[in-house]
Amino acid sequence: MSRFERLIPMLLTDFYKTIHHLAYVPKLEYLVSYWTPRKSRYEDCNKAVVFGLQGTAKKYLIEYFNEHFFKRPIEEIKEEYIRYIANTMSVQAADTTILEALHSLGYLPIRIKALPEGTVANIRTPIYEFKNTVAGYGWLVNYLETYLSVNVWHPINSATVAWRYRKVVNDAFEKSVSKTAVARIDGNMKTAMNADCLNDKENTACGDFSMRGMTSIEGAAKSSAAHLLSFVNTATISAIPWLEEYYNCDCTKEVVGRGCPSTEHSVMSSYGREGEFECYRHLIEDVFPAGPLSMVSDTYDYWNVLTNYLPRLKASIMKRNGKIIIRGDSGDPVDIICGTLKAKDYMVVDGLTEDGIKAYFKKKAEDEYPWNGASETWYRVRIGDYLYEVTCEHEWIAETDDGEGGCYGETVEFVDYKKTYITPEMKGTVEILFEIFGGYINAKGFKVLDEHIGAIYGDAITYERAVEIYQRLMDKQYAVTCVTLGIGSYTYQCVTRDSLGQALKATNAIIDGKETQIYKDPKTDHSAGNNFKKSQKGMCYVYEDESGDILYKDCLTFEDMESEEYADNMLETIFEDGVMVKEYSLAEIRARLNNGNF
Fold first, then answer.
1. Please, which residues have CB within 8 angstroms of residue 596's CB and are 6 or more apart in sequence?
2. Is 5 exposed, middle or buried (0-12, 13-18, 19+ CB in 10 A)?
3. Whole-angstrom Cα distance, residue 137 to residue 448?
């Protein structure tokens, strides 16, 4: 094992933490600190999802501390500590007395109280409480801050981001997804299914595609584990054993996470441009004749694959027991999925033909156009694969002439229309697939792709684009189950601890036998207008109000917290003196986060 891999945990921190035991107020006996998401940088999101501390405590406060601190000889620990502190900061800073005392004690004298994992807490509400359990170890509480922070802020952030996507999914499903299919669109007269395809669950709507863009294997696993609180699809295999190890689940007995057979560009391009159709045929008919298969389809000409290859392979696809999933991977994801032609930009008139345009729009212009002196009315109508831009001309005539303007009327003349072919790019993936393979109209009036075909997009998906994709699909009367979205490293990696303003701050202490409430309240933060750096003061009571918000009350004492009035404090002891006191399973966390709907 390398020197880095076995580094003692007391060196897995910032330099400045190593001298704070010398700097604290004399006779500091006990210290209490709270971990709080203090500010959300996500628009319209004032909540944070509690997740990751259980895994961190089990791996780093127990496994790592025991293996690389308590089980190692103290002389070896002192030598390592002095090497890195005395030679890089100062000899005075390389004080090993605290390490010797802690090593002799044999366990971490820390009690951690936490909100149950999967709780959605309001911003500024403390979610973790840390306190030393042995007098004289107050210095240890915040010494562990960096060691803990580097492990917990990202899972909290990723869990919050995934939950935010899940809320968008839930809303779109509520509007467009039904368990009942009421009509079959294509000529394939099969018995209508009692669901929108096979993918009618909110928890399959988004997959995690982020691993290759993360900074480490473990970081990817923990972030994807956080994603799996809200969804089940992931490309990150390591998230599943990480959850099994630390969150009491078993992928052989329950759905922890799911992957999907999928190709990449090296696979598709290995057949060459000339052999591209054979690539699709071979994979669909010979290699994967059953089950789901996702095929990246923009190696050369994405629209040619959709409009040429897929119709030729329709019979093979429709007889498979499983779904072929077409994956775009470049361009604007909203336009690729939904088409550049937006439903709001044209009208569809039932039964209208090209021959009937003249009379229909002349009458419409006469009935609807207001008297305002304009000379033309312009309409846009879609008939099949063509878009007609219709112009009607208004002529204003005087019915009477009294010399003062009189009373006016109008006549409308049909002038012309411009006919434009609607290209595949204008239609978008979902519409093209529906034209080829058909599907259902569900009880809510939305079209659903046949269960043998689907679409997925995982490049450049953001929260805002997900919202737009769903809205534009629904505008065209497609259920959002027609597409699965892959959430990548832009969403899960291009964030910081400050995305939710997470920090650990000391609020209460016992100094020389006397309880003292401590806090920070920077004047410069007041002048900045946000004041989010102001900490809590004293002990904190965390509770759920009548509206379901998780809030807190501070400025309390140790005695207050022992009273019956605050006995229902939502912060529960999960770790004490080197041992896990309370644990949660993945199933419990999912149920709590999703109100039992998972």
1. none
2. exposed
3. 62
Read off the pLDDT of residues 484-501 as tens digits, 9 standing for 90 and up: 999 999 999 999 999 999
Tokens at 77, concatenated:
């620990």
Cα gap 62→577, rounded to integer Å: 10
- CA-CA distances (angstroms) from residue 127 to 108, 535, 579? 21, 13, 20
Contacts 24+ apart (CB under 8 A), 22-28: 22/95, 24/138, 24/139, 25/509, 25/511, 26/512, 27/511, 27/512, 28/138, 28/139, 28/509, 28/510, 28/511
Q: What whole-number distance in Å separates Cα of residue 364 and Cα of residue 463?
A: 40
Spatial contact of 430 and 179, defined as CB atoms under 8 Å apart = no
Q: 577, exposed or middle or buried, with CB in 10 Å at 0-12, 13-18, 19+?
A: middle
Q: What is the CA radius of gyration of the chain?
A: 32
Closest CA to 506 of 170, 145, 194, 241: 145
Amino acid letter, residue 263? T
Alpha carbon distance 281, 310 (integer Å): 9
Q: Model pTM?
A: 0.93
Tokens of 178: 């039904």
230-270 pLDDT tens trace: 999 999 999 999 999 999 999 999 999 999 999 999 999 99
Q: What's the order of all strands across the beta sheet hosting 293-296?
A: 233-234, 206-208, 483-487, 453-457, 324-328, 293-296
Tokens encoding 187: 């000529």
For the chain, the distance separating the N- and C-terminal CA atoms, rounded to the nearest angstrom, is: 41
Contact call for residues 226 and 158 (beta carbons, < 8 A): yes
Question: What is the DSSP track for 497-565?
Answer: GGGTTEEEEEEEEEETTEEEE-----HHHHHTT--TTPPP-SEEEEEE-TTS-EEEEEEE-HHHHHSGG
Q: Token pair 């419990």 is at which residue?
A: 588
Strand arrangement, sheet containing 502-511: 514-517, 502-511, 28-37, 128-132, 110-114, 572-576, 579-580
In which element (H, E) is residue 30 found?
Answer: strand 28-37
SS3 46: coil
Residue 548's Cβ-side half-sphere holds a number of Cα atoms within 13 Å equal to: 6
* Tokens matching residue 409: 């009327």
Q: What 3-state class would DSSP assign to 122?
A: strand
Q: Over the stretch 533-569, which tens digit does the pLDDT of each residue have?
A: 899 999 999 999 999 999 999 999 999 999 999 999 9
Instruction: Give dist(CA 37, CA 33) in Å, integer.
Output: 13
